[in-house]
Amino acid sequence: MVTMRDVADRAGVSIATVSFLLNDTKPVTAATRARVEQAMAELGYRRNAVARALASRRTHIIAMAYPALEHRFGMSTAEFFTSAAEAARKEAYHLVLWPVGNDGVELRELLGQGLVDGVVLMEVQLDDPRVDVLRETGTPFALIGRTTELEGLSHVDIDFDTTVRDAVGHLYDLGHRELVLVSGDLADPRFHAYGPWVRTEDAYRRIAAEYGLPIVVMPCSDTTQAGQEAADRLIQEHPKTTAILVLNEYAALGVISGLTRLGRDVPGELSVLPLLMVPETAALSNPELTIMRTPGPELGQLGTDALIRQLEGADPLPPQLVPAKLYPGATVAAPRAPRSKGGGGRRGERKARS
Amino acid sequence: MVTMRDVADRAGVSIATVSFLLNDTKPVTAATRARVEQAMAELGYRRNAVARALASRRTHIIAMAYPALEHRFGMSTAEFFTSAAEAARKEAYHLVLWPVGNDGVELRELLGQGLVDGVVLMEVQLDDPRVDVLRETGTPFALIGRTTELEGLSHVDIDFDTTVRDAVGHLYDLGHRELVLVSGDLADPRFHAYGPWVRTEDAYRRIAAEYGLPIVVMPCSDTTQAGQEAADRLIQEHPKTTAILVLNEYAALGVISGLTRLGRDVPGELSVLPLLMVPETAALSNPELTIMRTPGPELGQLGTDALIRQLEGADPLPPQLVPAKLYPGATVAAPRAPRSKGGGGRRGERKARS
DNA sequence: CTGAAAGCGCTTACAG
DNA sequence: CTGAAAGCGCTTACAG
């Protein structure tokens, strides 16, 4: 292994000078710089990050703490991760996905070892023990998501309010007046405090009321099967519905296939608009789904930037909320004129009319 | 920060003794042990991993190198990662997902910094520049996947041969004689040397020949749309087909929805058997797909164990190949008696018979 | 079984 | 602008 000592010797300078140059922490004359850089090149020197970390107390490693066992790592998560990693790399940090349980025990363990400078927290619960651990240990962190009490926490999150408002507005403008929200299943103890579900449902109830729409919310867990069952119930219990908002990705796929199976034409008879989906998932369906696109790339980057600013002692960024944006597809259309009593009808049959 | 020095002082021993105890590297009397352990507990001591790494030249960090930009991080990858991380934790290593491009440049950069003890390589190409980098730098590593030349490389991989043999055998035993493999698209330059595709297709040609079956292979990239198009072509060009093997996950979803859309009953008229899929993806369809289940959990664990054995200087594990296993669902059945010329037929109509 | 001391490869006041 | 030296918090021969 070639060390800074070797470089310094070959360049005829002290290791301090090499270090100053490398970190750009003190001015160095052009001549010295040239000699040192040549020596580094000749020797193929690479600075040892572990030694640097010990001396400077900064590892330049950011952990994206992910509760791998509790939450499936889906397409959306992959987006957050990828964009966060890119943002970190630009600032000369390593961002890695670190699997830790969401009870805070493993996270405390990890932080105690001094391996990471900061943490980006995903899948934040409304009252998250990991946040307590991060505070207690004085670790810089940023949330992607939000806890209930937010004072002084740097965080970025989806702007659920705007997302729901835009989605409802879009459907309303098309002429829909009978909407249903297929929400998350807040009765599930694992999710009763899961921010995205709570916030979306709250926003929907408020905004539907503002629009003077009847408020129909159906709980539904995030699986294709559950989505299909929700479609069944919906057709039974709310036959006048013309548009469906679906909170969860896999549930949305199920709602669509459920409706199709029941012979309902989408979007001819019913429009379906998922509220938080990535294009990869939308593309699982053909024709492709109209969706509100999860702002994963933006949030991953903003969250990481917010953390790095803390680490660098820069002024903190204000909390950022980013809405999902309408991403056009083929599953939302204007409602048809009131349908004939015959109902049903086989798929495709009326496509020309819609 | 409480250091080993603090613990030693409080326990009235030297820091060497604390270290010996902590690492279980030299015997310590029960009395001493008790004093030190009490001191550690009282002070809430946690060993600094960075200092330890510098002194011992081992960081205990394993990087799962993942080409995030080139490959989508899907459900299967998540499985590998989760099980690998668990295996590492058991052996007191950290396994983290480290995004690096698959050309070897970023990997070389990373290895030069001395932050990781070893690497688990995913999405291995048949001729992988990252393997060269790992060899040149003398980094211990294990492959999940295989390069063409394998001498001396510790690796684990899917047993494509057994997987295909079992899949074909299963269909054959049910009575199927007209099979088609919807393969990967090896014409795509990004994948022409992608091991799983090459190996699966090779195995299929060989094994179908052994069974005396007509050999029909259709290239198809891994998207739902491509799968649907493949279904269209297949119905046109090979109308006598009774069973379809599909290599890729998303293509498989497309094949099924494509067939359904064309009015073909699955499995009444056509059985569909994906060769490498995880149950999460199978559950996106309802009824759930019959699949050959990717052995992600096994491979993640075996790959990590193989690497850790190297790191610990234990005897290397022999390369391991693990087949995907049949995972029952509702999309494979015996072929029907030769179908009437009328063809088509609406879905569900004949279910009672199949 | 235990300790004193060197050393891992850097950074960073401090001095000039 | 550059250098000598202390120090980051551990591990590990070496000696006893």
Automatic annotation (TrEMBL), chains A, B:
InterPro entries: HTH_LacI, LacI/GalR-like_sensor, Lambda_DNA-bd_dom_sf, Peripla_BP_I. SUPFAM superfamilies: lambda repressor-like DNA-binding domains (SSF47413), Periplasmic binding protein-like I (SSF53822). The keyword DNA-binding applies. Residues 328-354 are annotated as: Disordered. Pfam families: LacI, Peripla_BP_3. Keywords: DNA-binding, Transcription, Transcription regulation. Residues 2-56 form the HTH lacI-type domain. GO terms for molecular function: DNA-binding transcription factor activity; transcription cis-regulatory region binding. SMART domains: HTH_LACI. The keyword Transcription applies. PANTHER family: LACI-RELATED TRANSCRIPTIONAL REPRESSOR (PTHR30146), LACTOSE OPERON REPRESSOR (PTHR30146:SF153). This is LacI family transcriptional regulator. It comes from Kribbella capetownensis.
